Amino acid sequence: MKMQKFDDVWDAIEATPAKAANMRARSDLMIALHKTVKAWGVTQATAAKRLGLTQPRMNDLMRGRINKFSLDALINLASEAGLSVRVQVRKAA
Questions:
Q1: Which of 3, 21, 35, 69 has the smallest set of CB atoms within 10 Å of its CB?
Q2: Which domains does the chain have, with CATH numbers?
Q3: What is the pLDDT of residues 52-79, one digit of tens each?
Q4: pTM value?
């Protein structure tokens, strides 16, 4: 059995580099949003109102249910949370 090495988990489990890049971006945004909301020190219901979400949707975000959020939705939530999102484009290795 030959061992494979990957740069991150998304490269290992996604079928294409494009899908891996999308999941990587979504994951980074979810982590940033989770940290930001935790730092607010408020209930999920309060955080949900602040972000314009329902409490169950907020729970999905805080539990890391990545497949329930598109990249666009996460960028919009980051903006509502007072975060600045920047896309970095570079030539693939």
A1: 3
A2: 17-80 (1.10.260.40)
A3: 999 999 999 999 999 999 999 999 999 9
A4: 0.87
